[in-house]
Amino acid sequence: MVPSHISLLAPIFALIFLLSMLLPTVHAAPISIQPLQKRASLNDAHTGGRGTFFFPGLGACGKTNGDNDMIVAVNQAVFQQFRDVICDNKSMEVRANGKSATVQIVDECPGCGPNDIDLSPAAFKVFADESVGVLTVDWNIF
Ligand SMILES: *[C@@H]1O[C@H](CO)[C@@H](O)[C@H](O)[C@H]1NC(C)=O
To answer: Alpha helix (H) ranges present in the chain?
Structure first.
């Protein structure tokens, strides 16, 4: 007759074996998924966005700015994902109409799409007269 402790241990060893097979699968899963996801990075280049202007006041970073400051508001998704580093002191280079300008990011723009930015009047005037209203802009945060 088989001793009773062997029949008790067999399922436990079977379970440990099964768990050891599962563990590497669990750890490997996120690695195999990663190449399929496009993680937004703060330094991604943005092209063909809408560049509008607004009259700055108290911004989402808690700083107060005026029309003559070279500042910009970025779309809400980027702002909220990188709020701390943006509000610490982050600038972007904006290019439009063959010109470029460096502007500090101090606010979020709820109406902006992923490639859109909202500039102060001073920053907008680097590229065109305010009467133009909307620019086609390329920009990247640095
Ligand atoms: C913000 O960063 C720029 C360089 O990107 C630097 O010239 C400037 O002094 C910084 N301002 C503050 C308040 O730290």
So the answer is: 4-33, 76-81, 83-89, 121-125
